[in-house]
From TrEMBL:
N6-(pyridoxal phosphate)lysine, modified sites: K275
Protein name, per record: Serine hydroxymethyltransferase
Source species: Streptomyces jeddahensis
EC supergroup of this enzyme: transferase
Gene: glyA_2
TM segment ranges: none
GO cellular component: cytosol
Pathway(s): One-carbon metabolism; tetrahydrofolate interconversion; Amino-acid biosynthesis; glycine biosynthesis; glycine from L-serine: step 1/1
EC number: 2.1.2.1
Assigned keywords, A-Z: Amino-acid biosynthesis, Cytoplasm, Methyltransferase, One-carbon metabolism, Pyridoxal phosphate, Transferase
Domain Serine hydroxymethyltransferase-like: 22-123, 156-429
PROSITE patterns: SHMT
InterPro entries: PyrdxlP-dep_Trfase, PyrdxlP-dep_Trfase_major, PyrdxlP-dep_Trfase_small, Ser_HO-MeTrfase, Ser_HO-MeTrfase-like, Ser_HO-MeTrfase_PLP_BS, SHMT-like_dom
Similarity-based family: Belongs to the SHMT family.
Amino acid sequence: MPEPLSTESTAFRSALDVIRGVEPRVADAIGQEVEDQRASLKLIASENYASPAVLLAMGNWFSDKYAEGTIGRRFYAGCRNVDTVESLAAEHAKELFGARHAYVQPHSGIDANLVAFWAVLAARVEAPALQRAGARQVNDLSEKDWAELRRELGNQRMLGMSLDAGGHLTHGFRPNISGKMFDQRSYGTDPATGLLDYDALRATAREFKPLIIVAGYSAYPRLVNFRIMREIADEVGATLMVDMAHFAGLVAGKVLTGDFDPVPHAQIVTTTTHKSLRGPRGGMVLCDDSLVEQVDRGCPMVLGGPLPHVMAAKAVALAEARQPSFQDYAQRIVDNSRALADGLMRRGATLVTGGTDNHLNLIDVATSYGLTGRQAESALLDSGVVTNRNAIPQDPNGAWYTSGIRIGTPALTTRGLGTGEMDEIAALIDRVLTSAEAGTTSKGAPSKAQHVLDEKVADEVSRRAAELLDGFPLYPGIDLS
């Protein structure tokens, strides 16, 4: 007699059956995605695996509700249940991060950053302009005063980490809307060490005098001293904003504390709720008392209707992160990242900054293996190892082909892999990249995109990766067969 299905298996099977009754191709794609993720040696630093409880919290009737406004102050009636889940998510966030205020409506990281930018602009540019004009709100301004305020809002400066040093596109770079909002200048890293140069940053801030200094990264493998960042910001009269989207789980798990925890030091902190925090795809803003009013105007200032079903999932994920086991998980992320770095360096790989203090590593594949990032990414993917190419400081191959590969450990740590497995993964990565060669174009010229890899090597690594993952099943309590 077969064993009864788990509650989780029954829930997800039933959901897929309902979907299949309307559009079977969607149900098939969902099922295939689970299988693909189970079979992938996922080393993308910005990806993770949400729990079944988080996943299930997103699929419910909250999806049908409009709830513009804030808790208790909505533009739509009938939002008491939305108020409940939003309040829960905000309360969990405040307790988890020790924040004075939490705003959990942003749909994504860029939305969270836009709310933060405009909250600072509202407090530091708009509010003084309203006071000078004797107006309560912008609708009360004369056409002349409104035109002057618009000009002033569009003439502010931002200082953020350069992209090739590990910053993010949403920190004021021209292809992104943030770069069209601000006059932006970048700070970088020491060319010799790859580490943040706080003295150079201070000198740039003194000369540039930005309204906002943005700290935080997407591809910097070391820690940031936020106490020093706040000192620099205060010295030049800037607001310190920290985007901790990548390392929020390490802050929540109390791995990053003191000078390395941004929340006590920055006036405003943004994050995603997935990545190392292991929740649903979404964003969040934390702030001190000086910006509460402006942040809570995120809708309608930047956002439209919030996503109550995702806020429900955020509440569940943040509740999970408050459990003692999450601190152990966060520490294991860093332990695994360091073990992976050690394994790669022992095999001759060159890592940006010579190692890591957080969840990610950046391999200089051009120096180590004579490949571009794009070639290395493709060769690894052919071998069952999922990574992403990334620029390195002063990258000679630019932001598209790149000279680096970024790898992270949050997802594999969720599956239960430990430091011993990280060394074996380092061996697999090295095996692929030492075997791969740069390819040529259709005309026989050297290519930055094409690679050549012996199929036997790709098959060997893929098989070993699969065997490794078999010992650490993903969602072992869910059987969809």
